[in-house]
UniProtKB/TrEMBL annotation:
Domain FHA, chain residue ranges per copy: 23-72
Xref: CDD domains: FHA
Annotated TM spans: 220-239
Domain of life: Bacteria
Pfam families xref list: FHA
Database matches in InterPro entries: Cell_Proc_Reg/RNA_Proc, FHA_dom, SMAD_FHA_dom_sf
Protein name: FHA domain-containing protein
Alphabetized UniProt keyword annotations: Membrane, Transmembrane, Transmembrane helix
Amino acid sequence: MTWKLKAITAELGENEISIDRDMLVGRHQDADILLQSAEISRRHAAFLIKDDALWVQDLKSSNGTFVNDIRVDDQKLLKDNDVVQFASIKFHVYASEAQPQQAEKVSEPVESPAVQQKETVIVQPAEAIATSEIEKTIDVVKEKTPAQQLSEQGMPELSARDAGVQLTRDGMPTSVGVPKPAPIPQGIDVHAQPEPAPVAIPETQSVADQQTEEKKNASVGLFTIITLVILAVIAWLFFK
C-alpha cells in the first residue's frame, strides 16, 4: 500500500507527496518534506511507516500538529481520507494500492543503495514561487543603458579617431561648427531702447507751509478759549 498527501491549502497549489518511508516534516534543511513557512517549526513532525500503516508524530512543535482538527500530543494512526494539519497548512491523506512497474522502466539503470541520496520534497507557498520568478524575470530584462555602455567603453584612443579631423595642442578639434543664431523677426529693432515709464513723485509740503498751518491752528484755538471765557463771565454776571 502506498500513502500519499495532497495539499489542501490554496497557497501550496496542487502538490502531491508520496510517503514510502519515515519522513521528517519541518522548516530545517534536513527535512524530507520542507515547508518554508514561519509558523512551521524547524523539526515540526514526522511520518512513520509501521506494517504498511501510516502514523504521524508531533515533535513538540510550537503551533502543533492536527488530525481532523484534533491536536496530536504524541502519535496518531492515520486512515484514508484523514486531514493532517501542520500549523495552518493542511494535507489530505489517502491510500492507494502499489502499481507494478512497467517493463520499460526495469531496463533503466538503478543506483546502488550507497550512492542513492535522500530525496527532499520542497513545498512552499505560491507567493514565494511568484516572487522568485519575478526576480529572475527582472534580472533577464535588465539591460545596460547607453550611458553605462559609454562609461565601460571609455574614450577612444587618438589612433582610433578619424584621421581627417585636425586637433589643436589641447586635443580639441579645430573645425567645430558653430550653430547660427535664430533669425530676428521683421519690424523689430534690436538697437532700440525701451522708453522709461513715468514715475509718479508724491507732493511734499514745504516747511514754511507747515509753520503757517501751525500758526493758523494756534490762533483759532486761542480765539476759541477767549470766547469761552467771555461767555462764562457774562453768564456769571447775569445770574448773580
